[in-house]
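Q: Hi! First time doing this. I have a protein sequence and I read that you can turn it into a structure. Is that right? Here it is:
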Amino acid sequence: MKSGPNQIVIDCRWILPQSSGIGVYTRELVRALLSVSTQEEYHLLFNNEYLARRETARLPRRNADFHIWLVPWSPLSLGGQIALPFRIWKRADLYHGPNYMIPFLAFPRKRQGSPACVVTVHDLIPLRFPDHAPRARKSRFLTFFRFLLREAVLRADAVICPSNATCRDIVTLLSLSQKQRSKIHVVPEGIPAGLGPDPVKREKYPLVLFVGRRDPYKNLPMLIDAFARLRRTIPQARLEVIGPPDPRYPEAEQSAARLRLGSAVTWRGYVPPEEMIRAYQRAHAVVLPSRYEGFGLPVLEAMACGCPVVCSRAGSLPEVAADAALYVDPPTPEALARAMERILTAPSLSRMLARKGISRARQFSWERTARETITIYRRVMHGAAAEAVP
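A: Yes, that's right. Below is the predicted 3D structure, encoded as structure tokens:
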């Protein structure tokens, strides 16, 4: 019988110098796990020594122990697919892949005993809407992407997804059987502790904020068009776009130039987490006109900071925002412009949305995410150990 703490490997190679999405999820989950775990020891897998030291220097050292695994392979490398399984077999009771690209050879479909495998699937946007990111690698190699994603789901002992919308997509788009569906667990993501409103920092001029990548499903060019319409009635309005530039998708910048918005639009690029809080606190509204979202962290982060949210009803957004957002369905330039104008000119509406948003955001935390994730870890490790008994 096994003695000592359970050995958990978490693949932290998805944390990048300018992380968003999966990188943020990985970082915040690890931080919360180390705060609440009592029976586990963690091995954090990195392929960049600088990032490993930077990230682990910020981690709590209260309950669970952790160690750094430094490897030379990226998550997508062939070398890692071949060599990494041996280390996992030797050292781990469980491997958690925060994205679908797991070391597949470590987890054949038919296996007995440990190590167990948990994989997180954040969304299936390339499969659901292949035209929404036409220049992304996933869209260009769609059949191969679907194969890898389905293999990861089938080989995993448990699959975590952040929303019921993503859960439905996994079942439908990957053609899972009833038995295979039972391994899927919906675990909502969280927001960092300490987020809160600061009315003193709110800008004197009407400021609208967009947070996200340039991928077409984010609908940023439509927001640019809507903002130009808004400026006809509120000429002092300003728009800040936060998110890394992407030369594959220049349409938003081209629209802003064509509409002669000039300095009315500020392209801020990547903004570190501590500055993001100030950005939310400064803004009068955060707008997400996405055609789809697997979760939508900016919605919760904005709400926690007391910033009203305008968003579409796509994907998980109604699930996350509930009745605390002003919805535009379907999003059109005219409808978005009207929604932004309502928030900027109706203080009572803005205050109501801010109040509801703060209340809604309190229902989500990374501690809750970590506790539900640990429950899944222990369940699948117990199952793997039971299978190993002759």
